[in-house]
Amino acid sequence: MSEIQDVTGEAIESAVLSRVVTALGGMVLEVTEQNPRRGWVRVDPARIREASRIMFAEQKARLATVSGLEVRDGIDMLYHWCLDSEHYIVTLKALAARPAMEIDSVGQDLPAANWIEREMHDLLGAEFRGHPDMRRLILADDWPEGAYPLRRDFHVPRVDPTGKRETNEWAGARDEKKLQQPPASQPKTPKPGRTLINIGPFHPLQEEMEFFQLYCEGETVVDMDVRISYNHRGIEEFSSRLTWDQVPFLVERVCGICSASHPWAYIRAVEEICGIQAPPRAEYLRTIVAELERLHSHMLWIGLAGHFLGYNTVWMWAWKYREPVMDILELTTGSRIHYANNRIGGVRRDIPPDLYPEIRKAVDSLKAPLELITNAFLDDPVLHARLKGVGVLSKEDALRWGATGPTARASGVPIDARRDYPHGAYEEVDWEVITQPEGDVFAKAVVRCLECFESVKIIEQCVDRIPDGPIAVEVNHVPPGEAVGNYEAPRGETFHYVRSDGGAGPVRHKIRAPTYMNLPSFKSSCIGEHISDVTITLASIDPCYSCTERMARLVDAETGKPLGTFDDMVRISQERTRRLRKEV
Amino acid sequence: MGAIGIFLAAAVGTLVIGMVASWVDRKVTARVQYRVGPPLFQPVYDIAKLLGKETLLPERAKGRGFLLAPVVGFAAAGVGAAIVWHANIRPAEGFVGDLIVLLYVLTIPAIAVIYGALASGSPHATFGASREMKLLMSYELPLVMAVLVPVVQVVKGGGGATFSIGQLVTFQQTSGWALFSLSGVIATAVALLCIQAKLTLVPFDLPEAETELMGGTHLEYSGPPLAMIKLTRFLLLAVSPVFLATLFVGGLGDAASGWSWLALAGKFVVFLVLVVLIRNTNPRLQVRKAVRFFWFGMAPLAAGALVLAWLGY
């Protein structure tokens, strides 16, 4: 076997990348070895289906997501394949050339690519040959055809603010009637005699907007469909208009709960472009906040799961015990939700040593309630009857759908970005990746309960061992380049792709939230179940749709004076923080 | 006092008790869950507010049946209350077979709920109705068998065959409560769980199942009809513990004595708290599991209790 060469002419050092390139054989056009854990391979676009099949079936890789990138010659498709057990991420690049911008659909073989191809069709106008279900995913139903918001030639149509002149170029293109109609997502053969049960767009089961349609025969769900993106905010596009340091604040707001995870994944990508490493103390601080976040997220889920099952006592108890975690987060970062502590090169705010005992005390006080809740879950015969064998996602299906996080781990797929892609303080503390083989809702509950204890362990060790030193390195320039970064958010791996042209901010920033991979797996886990089981199965992946967007504006009905303005919120939070400080 | 007078007194009195019971339910639940809970008059506020709201009639609803069903349910629950109280206060004056009538009357609210839900034209309500139907058919059999246990005990105790609640009460006052025997304990437990299902409380709140069916059977109701449904539930929440107390722990006894009223209040509270505790320490069951629970769990148990009672245990 001749030595495989990088695009620069140097020999490839990584055994994993060599193996992958060898397996792909003649399809490979060009190889770039970025560092010992990342490789980029340009392949022949005509053979992308075959390449994907080799990656999935032979190399046992997991498709994290596909990033679409508009370039001069067309749309560059970046298929990010994670070889989790080998700690390696290979990105296959394939060009969908102008003018057709067409490429074979990978989604027809691998369901994990189904949604992302629909998304790229919506946003970039790429065409996928042979895609089984090319309906709208991201864009609203009344969005005009042929307007692709992520394309360079797209512009937001001008509307005359006075409303006197019709300057809207899309006038007539928008079909208001479509908004009144049921969504386009109807299964292809709606049989008579089936009852349609709608869950959404607003439903007590879900905190956010989404629209499930359950086709039922009796109580059994025979087909299902989902319509998402009621809350699409164009964060990826917005991100490419901000500076490097502004983006973490934006991506924090992708999700109200993963607000430590998204910035970290982005920062990991940018640090990789820069080739820098945050100081050890910063890595510990990041780890502490991220694990506190995992604790509060998992406890939130345990409570919600109780609520969905009609077990409201569990709901209230879990949320009560979650409060100390929120208090500690507020104490250490200044905020319960948006921590704003992470930055490129380190962290913004140190945790002073006199807070260590506070953190330890709060985390200690969690152990007994966590034991209580875990035992209540594990030993309750009614819960066993209710959750065991329900909504099973088999290991094969979890792999095919590219499931991540507790959803995958409960199906016996031992992946965890914290362990598989070493970063933070995770290598230096003692913890375990929890897996369960069954794949049912009960297994997912067990995984989350036990992961809480692991988080407690991690936080305690971090507080004990945190080294002194600087909390950040100065980063003055981000060189041109591209990189991926991931982090294990409480719900699963969040995956970011960032491309730099050496300017003030990213030119392309692709965000893939964990639910994006976990949610579509309902096709495997929910069909054939009863309605009551479907609802808890949907909830068991801990879905997070497009996450909280706070645009509600309260106005006093009599005076018309706005209430709860930004200033009010800041004042209230500051008062609360002051009070907490005093109490501590 | 005429029959109408008795009915009105029983219905209004039971309604007041039911509102207090519902407040106790909500308050205890709140305290168990570390919440503050509502003020004492919250049930009254709820009803008053609902009565002031608009009645929305869904486009696809069959209006007459949709609006009539809550009234029928309320009336039936009121009649049930009247029978139970009458049998307790004047045990000697009951009519023959009022136990059988009571069992029938107490199924009417559930049937009214099914009828109203099916008339509402909503798929969610339809699912709720189908669940309520399955639930009704599964808990009625064990309930009837459990109720027969005190009857059999009276027969074995030499009181003669009777289906009069008054006679059951009188017999228990002289020869001890039905609960004080192996068959009585089993029958009480079975009846309590059946009552839990009759009240559609967790773990048997399937017809409403907020996080699945968004309220199911009464999803489409609003304003006064919804208030009517709430009132029916207050009545049932008051009648059911009294019903259990009457059949299994001796009922009221001497209506002229204040002590026996106090004792009845005590029995009432015990049964109510049991119901509230069950509701707060369980998740909702699936339909098929609930049916299996009653048919293959509770029914054989109740049948066993009947046999035991016949054998004199």
Task: Characterise this structure.
The complex is a heterodimer of chains A (584) and B (313). With 584 residues, chain A is α+β, with helices and mostly antiparallel strands. Chain A folds into four domains: 1-135, NADH:ubiquinone oxidoreductase Nqo5 subunit (Beta Polymerase, domain 2), CATH 3.30.460; 189-232, no CATH class; 235-540, Orthogonal Bundle (Cytochrome-c3 Hydrogenase, chain B); 554-583, no CATH class. Chain A has helices spanning 15-24, 48-58, 114-124, 176-180, 235-239, 247-252, 261-274, 280-308, 312-333, 356-379, 381-387, 395-400, 405-409, 417-420, 441-465, 514-518, 522-525, 531-540, 566-583, and strands at 28-35, 38-43, 62-71, 74-83, 88-97, 102-104, 127-129, 195-199, 211-217, 220-227, 342-343, 346-347, 481-489, 492-500, 508-512, 554-555, 562-563. In chain A, a hairpin with a 4-residue loop joins β4 and β5 (88-97). In chain A, α8 runs antiparallel to α15 (441-465), α8 runs antiparallel to α18 and α9 packs antiparallel against α10. The radius of gyration of chain A is 24 Å and the shape is globular. Mean pLDDT of chain A is 83; it is low at 546-554. Chain B is built from eleven helices and no strands. In chain B, α3 runs parallel beside α9 (223-248). Helices cover 73% and strands 0% of the residues of chain B. Chain B has helices at residues 3-32, 42-51, 63-89, 98-119, 123-156, 165-175, 182-198, 210-213, 223-248, 258-280, 287-311. Chain B has one domain. The mean pLDDT of chain B is 87. Chains A and B meet through β8, α8, α9, α11 and α18 of A and α5, α8 and α11 of B.
